[in-house]
Design goal:
The protein is mainly beta. It has a single domain, classed as Fumarylacetoacetate hydrolase, domain 2, CATH 3.90.850. It contains 5 helices and 17 strands. A 7-stranded mixed sheet has the order 4-3-14-8-9-11-5, with helices on one face. Strands 6-17-16-12-13 form a 5-stranded mixed sheet, with no helix packed on it. Strand 16 and strand 17 form a beta hairpin.
């Protein structure tokens, strides 16, 4: 659980699950030498991976390469099951910034063996979220500039207008597979420019209209 500002309040965010959409920007799929999927593909991160704004991402000894992937995150307000795309937006509390931290070498090994990506995605601190939750009605998620810097150097820069599957479609699709619960987090995919993190790095990830998520990086001792 982490606490995030929401308007004049503070929300204790305790999702039942973190749903992450893969290859939802064509340029990212291309840089990963992957085919753009015809329908949304997603995986899960455990809530224990959550990290608040200003936290420390820990690089695990088990991995030799850990990458950053900035994403728009949707915070669910109410539970929904088999909801239509037309009604999907009614179930959103708000939006925030997240970075899908990925042990890339472990993911590559899992892909080669046809295994799940859980180890590569699920380490503690691998889901930084923040700095706040912007109310759903205050911004349009379909055209937001999104970016990430490492030590001040721009690594990722795009716009959510380039998402293949927009927010409403993602919510509808996922809700036909599993029930979305209040405070569940939906990470909508990353644009191109993903790259490695190293001990001592300082990361800023931003989305216009939401704010800037900041965290540092340390090697596991």
């Amino acid at each position: 659980m982490i606490n995030l500002p929401y308007g004049t309040e503070e929300i204790a965010l305790a999702p039942s699950k973190i749903i992450c959409v893969a290859k939802n920007y064509s340029a990212h799929a291309q840089e990963m030498h992957e085919v753009v999927p015809a329908e949304p593909q997603f995986f899960l991160k455990p809530p224990s991976a959550l990290l608040g704004d200003g936290g420390v991402v820990v690089l695990p000894k088990k991995s030799r390469r850990v990458d950053h992937e900035v994403e728009l995150a949707v915070i669910m307000q109410s539970g929904c099951r088999c909801v239509s795309a037309v009604k999907a937006m009614n179930h959103i509390l708000g939006y925030t910034v997240t970075v899908d931290i990925t042990a890339r070498d472990l993911q590559a090994e899992a892909k080669k063996r046809g295994m799940p990506w859980t180890i590569a995605k699920g380490f503690d601190t691998f889901a930084p979220v923040g700095p706040c939750i912007m109310p759903a009605e205050s911004i349009d998620p379909c055209n937001l500039p999104i970016w990430l810097t490492v030590n001040g150097d721009m690594r990722q820069k795009s716009t959510t207008a380039h998402m293949i599957h927009p927010v409403a479609e993602l919510i509808s699709f996922i809700s036909h597979i599993m029930t979305l619960e209040p405070h569940d987090i939906l990470c909508t995919g990353t644009p191109e420019g993903v790259g490695p993190l190293h001990d001592g790095d300082s990361v800023e990830a931003g989305i216009d209209g939401i704010g800037i998520l900041r965290f540092s990086v340390e090697q596991e001792s």
